[in-house]
From TrEMBL, chains A, B:
Keywords: Hydrolase, Magnesium, Metal-binding. This is 4-nitrophenylphosphatase. It comes from Candida verbasci. GO terms for cellular component: cytoplasm. It catalyses: 4-nitrophenyl phosphate + H2O = 4-nitrophenol + phosphate + H(+). Its EC number is 3.1.3.41. GO terms for molecular function: alkaline phosphatase activity; metal ion binding; phosphoglycolate phosphatase activity. PANTHER family: 4-NITROPHENYLPHOSPHATASE-RELATED, HALOACID DEHALOGENASE-LIKE HYDROLASE DOMAIN-CONTAINING PROTEIN 2. The active site is at residues 24, 26. Mg(2+) binds at residues 24, 26, 252.
């Protein structure tokens, strides 16, 4: 049975039991543009106990630098770039280290600036993505658009993620590249994207369009719950690799965050500030339950200092 | 074994053997904006033999009136509106006759003008679709777009088809309506859309996005090879209903046109002017083969008059 964290003793014991704290961001640290209560204090307290913290997010529209800016806007200034691990960064690392794509090959991007920034930081050239060339024509799409015939023979890989500026031209261009048999990488496959209390189209739903159109599935998925993301984190943190039970994955989604932690051998803490409810947790089978759950991340601080 | 039509005798016998000729359009009558050779003469000859002709197309971006205009541009003026059966018309008929949606209910459309025109002709009001309101905001999408909260409580059904002006806002709006549990109708589920010798994104691939995002599948699919389209055609042609073997389905796709004809009990003729090749036909199992195949539809005329 999952243990609900409701007392000072539980909160103190939880923090002292782990060396590594992995956090999902949206639904845990913030909800869209609103910082959740007592989060800043909780993070500072955990860091003061000489613990390692790592932010693990599937949102590929932002780069690690964008995340640091977002933390900064909330007044949280003590985060290092190396403590942020997003699916756009994970994808870029995958393409460089696992796919070993030469740096003189281009990458076709169906997605936003976060993906482009991380790829460029590793020395790759991207095409597609947020290039306005594919935006203006896409709005008034016609099948005679000459861009459809301008296939870059130097593209060596296709990377797809959440794409707010999606259009028919970009989707059809992506299809042309996938039909050449190029490696097909997905940042993540979340079906939905929570924003302002609504569920909008997620990266996985966009990727499903081009997957269905080409009868292909992604060759690699770099976001939670896929373990390629965990393997990269463990590669940077050998102590976590050897002793996964010294790590705690904190998140708001059972099918991504909790599965990600559990599959990686870590303990898990579900917070109820995102899309899951206490009722959902109670209805789970024993083997599906997180190790712990709490109303919110900030309870760890509130229980220790405010009760 | 499928019989290839290569002689005058075969062509004459084929035409005399059937009372109803059902034609797919793209890949059979025309390729995009190019009329295929000897098609006009073939259609005129078949009509002169007092045969019934019906055009059956999955392309929902055009209404029946749009199709008549397109035939007219090619100089083919002897087609009646009742001889055209498109997936947008089939969907409108389905919503009126099968779903029995009251006329004072609105319909949310993810698709193009062809769908809107057919629904309006039956007296329905559409929202979404080609309304520029959802286009201008979609280009510069942000999660705070007030349109996302303007859900029309009077919408009674969601109709999705091929959508060239697709964007993140329209997809996310469609998701909001589908998550209300409203009937989910698809014009057709072709994964690809052939244009100018390329395969672009088909209606089915777009519908897959919102299906994946909402964990729903369409409640009804109104295009080929689904038999709801055939049933509507047979309802208009009782002789075809009683004697399906008096009908011949002519098309360029095995998995839509040929399956549509065969499942409806009709004989089938595959033409090689679209996406299938002679090699494909020869590699099929016996039970998958069309009754006949020919290099092109116009061969029926050429073999009779030009050999």
């Amino acid at each position: 049975m999952s243990v609900k964290i409701t007392t000072k003793e539980q909160a103190e014991k939880l923090i002292s039991s782990y060396d590594y704290f992995l956090f999902d961001c949206d639904g845990v640290i913030w909800l869209g543009d609103h910082l959740l209560p007592s989060v800043s204090e909780t993070l500072t307290y955990i860091k003061e106990q000489n613990k390692n913290i790592i932010f693990v997010t599937n949102n590929s529209t932002k780069s690690r630098d964008d995340y640091l800016s977002k933390f900064g806007k909330f007044g949280i200034k003590n985060i290092a770039k190396s403590e942020v691990f997003g699916s756009s960064y994970a994808s870029a690392i995958y393409i460089e280290k696992i796919l070993k794509l030469p740096k003189d090959k281009n990458i076709w991007v169906l997605g936003e600036e976060g993906i482009e920034k991380e790829l460029k930081e590793l020395g790759y050239t991207t095409i597609g993505g947020t290039d306005p060339k594919y935006m203006e024509n896409g709005v008034k799409f016609d099948a005679n658009d000459p861009l459809l015939s301008q296939i870059d023979e130097n593209v060596g890989c296709v990377l797809c993620g959440l794409c707010f500026q999606i259009n028919y031209l970009k989707l059809s261009m992506t299809m042309q590249y996938l039909n050449k048999g190029l490696p097909f990488i997905a940042t993540n496959i979340d079906s939905t994207f929570p924003a302002n209390g609504k569920l909008l189209i997620g990266a996985g739903s966009i990727i499903e369009t081009v997957a269905y159109a080409t009868s292909r599935q992604p060759d690699a998925i770099c976001g939670k719950p896929n373990q390629s993301m965990m393997n990269s984190i463990k590669a940077d943190n050998p102590n976590l690799k050897d002793k996964p039970k010294r790590g705690l994955m904190i998140g708001d989604r059972l099918n991504t965050d909790m599965k990600f932690g559990k599959d990686g051998g870590l303990d898990t803490l579900l917070v109820l500030t995102g899309i899951e409810t206490e009722e959902n947790v109670k209805n789970l089978n024993n083997d599906e339950q997180p190790t712990y759950y709490a109303n919110k991340l900030g309870d760890l601080y509130d229980l220790i200092f405010l009760e």
